[in-house]
Amino acid sequence: MPNAIVYASKHGATAEVARRIAAHLNGRARLFALDDTVPDLSSFTTVVLGTAVYAGQPMKAMKEFCGSAPLSGKRLSLFVCGMEQDPAKRDAELAAAFPEQLRAGAIATAFLPGCYRFSKMNMAERFIVKRIAKTSGDIDAIDDSAIAKFAAALS
C-alpha cells in the first residue's frame, strides 16, 4: 500500500518538502494538501504528517487534523518545516505541532528546514522576517540530505 503524505503549507516550502519526500519513496506515496478537503486515509498503513511552522506554531489546519483524523493503528512519521536554527527551539516546534500521543508512536520525526519566499509573503510577514531573520531576500534552506534520511526511515 502506498504511503500518504498529508501536509499543511502556507507559502509552498512545506509542499516542496513533501514532494521531495514522495520522490524518495519511488512512486509509493500519495500527497494530500490540507487546504479545503480532509483526506480519507483508510487505505493507507503509513501516514506522514508535515506542517509549516510560523513563530513557533504549526498551521491551524494540521492541529485540527491531528485532533480529528482516525490515525490509530497507522505507522506515523511527523515533520515540521521551518527556519529555526536553535536545536532546542526546533524540538519545541516539533512538540507544539503534534500531540504527544502521535509523537510517542511515530517511527520517525524531523525538523526539516524550509525557505523564505518574500514574493509569497504579505507585508506584515515580510516585516517580521526582516526583523527576526535579518534578511530581506529569499533564502532556500531546504536540506535534501535531511529529507533523504527522513524518507529512509519510512522503509
Summarize the structure.
The chain is of the alpha/beta class and 155 residues long.
Descriptive account of the structure:
The protein has one domain: Rossmann fold (3-Layer(aba) Sandwich). The chain has 155 residues and is of the alpha/beta class. The chain contains six helices and eight strands. The two termini are 12 Å apart.
Give me the secondary-structure topology.
Layout: E1 3-8, H1 13-24, E2 29-33, E3 46-54, E4 57-58, H2 60-68, E5 75-82, H3 87-97, H4 100-105, E6 108-113, E7 115-116, H5 123-133, E8 139-140, H6 144-152
Parallel strand pairs: 1-2, 1-3, 3-5, 5-6
Antiparallel strand pairs: 3-4, 7-8
Structural class: alpha/beta
Succession of helices and strands: EHEEEHEHHEEHEH
Which fold name is given in CATH as the topology?
Answer: Rossmann fold
**SS field, number of helical segments:** 6
Oligomerization state: single chain
Largest sheet: 6 strands, mixed
Number of domains: 1
Q: Could you tell me the number of beta strands? A: 8
Mean pLDDT across the residues is 88
Uncertain runs are none
Kindly provide the radius of gyration, computed on alpha-carbon positions and rounded to a whole number of angstroms: 15 Å
Shape: globular
The CATH superfamily turns out to be: Flavodoxin domain
CATH class: Alpha Beta
Percent range of helical residues: 25-40%
